[in-house]
Amino acid sequence: MASKVILEQKQTVIDEIKEKTNNAKTIVLFDYRGLTDSEIKELRVKLRESNAEYKVYKNTLMARAFNDLGIDLSEGLTGPSALAYSEDQIAPIKILSKFAKEHPALVLKVGIVDGEKADTAKLAEYATLPSRDELLTMLAGGMIGIVRDLSICLDLYSQQKEN
């Protein structure tokens, strides 16, 4: 039987996983085996740039935390797994997918986006979506076009009334 100190340390890690999972809008489990230290450092930097992070936990501790939260990600907890999490729904998925294309050793397993479970196919689909900033840019461009067209129409109408 494990000592009380070890059990408390494990419970602290489980609580940390639960906190990070509850505070994140997106979590992704992925296999990182085969990546070099420099590649892992590069991945961490890219994730931090988009306010996402990842951490490696023991699968048994992640399984306990997910069970406590009522989340079933058991198929993603085979072999070494890392947990990426973020407040942004799409950013970590896009970064991990792009990184996986450049580094085939990284394999996405499963994730949760806004409370819904996402398998590898769904994660690949999410990776193709534009980011929030890109969508806002598209919206602003569309709205500017409408205002520009309205100003042209009003100018033509005023010129017509002058004649």
What does this structure look like?
This protein has 163 residues and is of the alpha+beta class. It has two domains: 4-129, Alpha-Beta Plaits (2-Layer Sandwich), CATH 3.30.70.1730; 131-163. The protein is 58% helix and 16% strand. It contains six helices and five strands, in the order αβαβαβαββαα. The longest helix has 31 residues, at 132-162. The protein is elongated, with a radius of gyration of 23 Å. The N and C termini lie far apart (96 Å).
Itemize the secondary structure elements and their pairings.
Blueprint lengths: L3 H20 L2 E6 L5 H13 L2 E5 L2 H11 L12 E5 L4 H12 L4 E7 L2 E3 L1 H8 L4 H31 L1
Antiparallel strand pairs: 1-3, 1-4, 2-3, 4-5
**Strand content range:** 15-25%
Stretches where pLDDT is under 50 for at least 5 consecutive residues are none
CATH fold annotation of the largest domain: Alpha-Beta Plaits
Number of domain units? 2
What is the level-2 CATH architecture name of the largest domain?
A: 2-Layer Sandwich
Q: Quickly count the helices.
A: 6
CATH level 1 name of the largest domain? Alpha Beta
The CATH superfamily name of the largest domain is Ribosomal protein L10, N-terminal RNA-binding domain
The percent of residues in helical segments reads 55-70%
Distance between the termini: 96 Å
Largest sheet, strands/sense/barrel: 5 strands, antiparallel
